[in-house]
Amino acid sequence: MAKILKEEITKTEVEPEAAKPKDKDKAKTKAATAKKTAEPVAEKESTETAVDAKIAKAGKRSAKTTKEVAEKEAKEVKKTQTTKAKKVEAVKPKQKPHVKKYSKNQKAAKALIEPGKMYGLKEAVELLFKLSKVKFDASAELHVALHIDPRQADQMVRTSTSLPYGTGKSIRVAVIAPDELAALAKKAGADSVDSEALIKDITKEQFDFDVLIATPDKMAEVGKLAKVLGPKGLMPSPKNGTVTADPAKSVEEFKKGKVEIKNDANGIIHIAFGKLSFKPEDLYANAKAVVKAISSAKPAGVKGVFINSMFISSSMSPSIRLDNNEAIKEAKEVKEAKEAKEPKIK
Questions:
Q1: 191, 225, 256: which is the final residue of a domain?
Q2: Among residues 66, 304, 317, 331, which is most buried (max CB within 10 A)?
Q3: Short-list 335, 331, 155, 158, CA closest to 241
Q4: Residue 135 sits in a domain of what CATH number?
């Protein structure tokens, strides 16, 4: 019995000693894991403290520097306030409206026109002779504002008409055509018909003509000069009769008084239809021909109202506003009168 008791006692004593190494291993593993987790935390803390230290170091300012910064901020605030005040003060004072000074003749001419009144075409043409006070042969002009968009190709106005009594100016006509047709154009009154010389002069931007007429077979050569002729308004076109197979006939028409009608970049037509040296009835006939041509040249792309306003004037005279409907009605009376005179053929 004693032996058994001794063995049990020894077992109990040995067992905790055998268990000791296992507890040590566990402790080691726990310490290792704790160390691993503690390392990044320590690193974070160290970096944070370093940053705080830097900020604290940078933020430390002496009384002198803080005073300078405060003064600088106060100056900037004052500067912004002064600039705002200057902007308010810099508002331009209202200028007195520019009053145009008129001469005695201009005042007398303006007094003949009733303000706000829209005149008929015949009445306006008769009044032109009273308004003109110049010492030279003044031109009679018609200015028509159209309801179009000049940037759109289908709203451009380009036509021509023959003035019954001419323009009162000597027009220089040049013709680019084959030799046979050029000879006929020369007989009709063309000023220059030498095609080669004309092309050379145009390339040098020398224009000794007011109208250029070309035949269709010569348009391949003339087309190369479009960049030079286009800006001057001299490029031949079938719309105004300057591209034709019969140049002699076109020369006669332009010499007699055929004029080209086209709008400018602002959608306005400016055209001279005679001189004040004409008889009033002759000038009236020319004006009717121009108004009729413009009213019948409404482009397909224009819807609704075509003519906004019409004014008539002479050189250096005040303008007279026309009644659009009345002027168009007077212009159409010419055609109706001619049709009434001509006998109907059965």
A1: 256
A2: 317
A3: 158
A4: 3.30.190.20
Nearest to 271, CA basis, from 302, 243, 293: 293
Query: 210 and 335: one domain?
Result: no
Show the low-confidence residues of the chain (pLDDT under 70): 1-61, 86-100, 334-346
- Is residue 320 one of the residues assigned to a domain? yes
| Residue 166 backbone dihedrals phi, psi, to 5 degrees | 75, 180
The model's pTM is: 0.60
**What's the confidence (pLDDT) of residue 253?**
86
Would you state the structure tokens that stand for residue 298, as one six-digit string? 């409404």
Q: Per the structure, how many domains does the chain have? A: 2
Q: Give me the phi and psi of 43, to 5 degrees please.
A: -60, -45
Residue 90 buriedness (CB in 10 A; 0-12 / 13-18 / 19+):
exposed
Tens-digit pLDDT profile for residues 313-339: 998 888 999 999 999 998 887 554 444
Residues 59-100: pLDDT tens digits?
556 777 888 888 888 888 888 877 777 666 555 566 666 666
188 and 314 belong to one structural domain: no
Residue 283 domain flag: yes
200 and 221 belong to one structural domain: yes
Domain of residue 313, residue span: 102-168+257-339
240: exposed, middle or buried (C-beta count within 10 Å: 0-12, 13-18, 19+)? buried
Q: Which one of 234, 256, 278 terminates a domain?
A: 256
DSSP string, 111-168: HTSPTT--B-HHHHHHHHHHH---SS-PEEEEEEEES--TTSGGG--EEEEE-TT--S
How deeply is 345 buried, as exposed, middle or buried, from its count of CB atoms within 10 A (0-12, 13-18, 19+)? Answer: exposed
Q: Assess contact for 217 and 199: CB atoms under 8 A.
A: no
CA distance 239 to 218: 17
CA pair distance 193, 220, nearest whole angstrom? 17
- Which one-letter DSSP state was computed for residue 23? H
